[in-house]
Structures are given as structure tokens and as C-alpha cells.
Amino acid sequence: MAAGICDGRVVIVTGAGRGIGRGHAVEFARQGARVVVNDLDTALDGSGAGTGGAAAEVVAEIEAMGGVAVANGDDVADWEGAQRLVNTAVEAFGRLDVVVNNAGFVRDRMFVSSTEDEWDAVVRVHLKGHFAPARWAAQHWREEAKAGRVVDARLVNTTSGAGLMGSVGQSAYSAAKGAIASLTLVQAAELGRYGITANAIAPAARTRMTEGVFTEMMAAPTDGGFDAMAADNVAPLVVWLGSSESADVTGRVFEVEGGKVSVADGWRHGPVIDNGARWEPADVGVAVRKLLAQAPDPTPVYGAE
User: Fold this and answer.
1) Are residues 35 and 29 in contact, defined by beta-carbon separation less than 8 angstroms?
2) Residue 260 catalytic?
3) Residue 194 among the catalytic residues
């Protein structure tokens, strides 16, 4: 294979057996990276670990095009499993440069109907499933930096429009994805001293998680034109963020859909009224209404009428 922008780099992609994650893994390999393809091969709702066939199929696809990859079936939200995942990269390829946290599933439910088990399962796979692999990778990279070796490492996390704006019927998913955006900011602030950047993407694409809920929006074109919702469209941004070229970009959240890339403009300090003393409750309402009149309207929650 010809050299690409990630030539020689070693990349872990979680949830890479299908959809967006598969697109990441294949494009990283096309761009010269050696890839650890992680996938539990579960159902859409995360139930039932499969045979590992999904990851093996992606590895075979990468090898067929001349690339190098290995499969890994560890649970990214399991502490020891996440450590094994990081160790897989180091043991197979002698190094690790990039972790793309992509794995996840949905159990959609209106908030008042949500169960504790559904909440725990969704938050676990998305939020802890981002924390655990990144934590072990960061420890590895910190040790490399302390040993005097140059670290040029990347964390690429996956949030969502639901995490940035909220989504009706997806309270657990939205909460976990919003937390991932905040986690990314902290990672960028804390890990930069070791040569590690952290960024997040909020993709919109046709996957098992979206095609049943947003059927019309996610449908492929029938006229042979550009398939804006194809899952593979997300990969170019992620691969660039995983390359050495992105070393000066950290702490950012990018929205990506089809051929569109944008930088999300998140929470920031807004208008202020300083009373100069403790407020009387009866006076607060007038101040709040003045502040709201100066502030932009919030972006509507997805699915809200």
C-alpha cells in the first residue's frame, strides 16, 4: 500500500466491526496505519456478545487491501478488558499512537419510562467505555514521555448531536454523550504536557443506531448521487485527527455529516448581571428575564415539537 498521512502509526478503534467504526479502521489502514479492530459483536442494544466475527471480517478486509490489522474482542467498559486492549496494540505492533473511542449502543426510552438497568447499561458502554481505554492509553503514553521518548498521541472521542443538543427519547444516551464532550475538554487540558491531544466528533450517518429511528433522513439516494449519510464519510476527519498533522488541534468538538465538517460552539459564559450583594428571591425573576433577552435562543432538542 502507498504511504498515507498515518503511515507507521498504530491505532485502536473500538466498536470497529460495523458502521462508522469499521469505516475508521479501514481508512486508517488505507492511510498506512496498523490497526487494532475492537468489537464485542453484540446486538444493537448491547445484548449478547457474539463470536467476534465482525472484527475478524474487518481485519480480513484490511489485509485483503494490503494493510495490517489484528482483532480484539475485549469489553471496552471493563477495566481489565480495556487494559488488555491497549496491551494488544503494544504487544502486536510495539507501540500505540491513537485511540478512537467509538463503541456504543442505544436503548431508547422516554425519560419517565427509563429503567435503572437501561440507564446503567447505556452510560456504562459510552462513558466508561471512553474512560477506560483512554485511561490505560494515557498511562502508557505518560510512561513513554517520562522515559524520554517522543509522544505524538491522539485521543478521538465520539459524542453526538444528542449529547450537544439533547434528543427526545434518549435521555441516557444524551447524558452520556454530553459527558464525553466534557471529558474531552479535561483530557485535552491535562494530557497536553505529555504530547497527547484529545478531540471529539459528533457524527451523523446511517448505522444500526440511526437507520431505524431516522429512516427517511438516513435513506441512501436512489439516483446514484452522493450518499451523504454513508457511514464511511465520517472517517476522513477522524483519520486526520489521528495523524501527526493535527498536533496543534486539541480540546475541540467537530460535527461531521456527509461532506460537511463544522466546529461545535459549546457552552460558554453568557450575559451577566451583578447585583453587588445577595439577591432577594423576589428580584431574581426580573434579572433572569433581562439575561434571557440578551442571550441567543438555545438550539432545539432533537425531536422536540
Assistant:
1) yes
2) no
3) no
